[in-house]
Structure formats: C-alpha cells, structure tokens
Amino acid sequence: MVASSKHNARARARARRLILQGLYQWQLSGALPADIIAQLYASQNTKDADTDYFEELLRGTIASSDKLAAVFSPYLDRPPTQLDPIERAILLLSTYELSARPDVPYRVVLNEAVELARKFGAEDSHKYINAVLDRTASGLRAVERGLGIGAG
C-alpha cells in the first residue's frame, strides 16, 4: 500500500469516528446534521480526518436512517430501536457505506465497523456487529462477496 493510500485509509477511519459521534448525538438529541457537523468541527481535532467523507456519510446516513434500518433489521434479534445507540449508529453507518459507497470494499466496511464496536461499544458487541453486517453485506454486496473482491 502506498503512503497516500495509507493516509487516505487513516483519514477515513478518523472520519468514521466523527460520524459515529455525530450519529450518537443525533439519536440522543435529534439535532440537525448541519448543527452536529458544526459542533463536531468546533469540539474535535478534524485536521487528519477526511472531512468530505465525514459530511457526506453523516448527512446520508441520517437522511436514509429508516431505509437503512429496514435493510439490517431482518438480521437482528430485536427491533433496531432497542439496540444500544452505539451499536445502532455503527450499523446505520456501515449499512449506508455498503449501499452508497461501492468504491469501499465490503471487508473494509466490516473491519472498520468491528474496530469501532471494539473501541466504543459494549463488551463483545463487535461480534454482534460483525454477524449482522456480514449478513447485510450478503444482500447488498452479493456479487462482490461471490467473486472474493474486497478480501484483502
């Protein structure tokens, strides 16, 4: 992997952390995306984050949240509204990324989601997130998964 690709991957990982914070805030407060974005820019160090990616995914995930929840709901053991807000935010973000960003390999989406769950979720929530997203990716990225694309 070349240096610019590594930098881009780190910048997107930082963007996903910001998106997770924004989605958490949105779930608890119902604030508008523009207000959440402004607050996160004011309170967080965003210089190493892919801010375009952050804004696109935060806005898109919030705008599509009901449709996204309907995509991963069949793989849950409870209604999405009963999920921990961190787990729900990770699933919303990752499902959006799987559906709207085919340029990001599904394995990258799953790995990033698992890392977010390990860092911010409850103990062992990463296993739950991985299982739900693996099944979700089977539907959204069936061709990619079947060809082994994104495996490494």
Describe this structure in words.
The chain has 152 residues and is mainly α. It has one domain: N-utilizing Substance Protein B Homolog, Chain A. 74% of the residues lie in helices and 0% in strands. The protein is built from eight helices and no strands. Helix 1 crosses helix 2 and helix 4 packs across helix 5.
The major pleated sheet works out as:
none
Helix content: over 70%
User: How many helical stretches?
Assistant: 8
- The CATH class assignment is Mainly Alpha
As for the CATH topology, it is N-utilizing Substance Protein B Homolog, Chain A
Structural class: mainly alpha
Inertia-based shape: globular
Layout of strands and helices, then pairs:
Blueprint: H1 3-29, H2 33-43, H3 51-63, H4 65-72, H5 85-100, H6 106-120, H7 125-140, H8 142-147
Helix pairs in contact: 1-2, 1-3, 1-5, 3-5, 4-5, 5-6, 5-7, 6-7
Quick gist of this model?
This protein is mainly α.
List keywords for this structure.
N-utilizing Substance Protein B Homolog, Chain A; single chain; mainly alpha; 152 residues; 8 helices
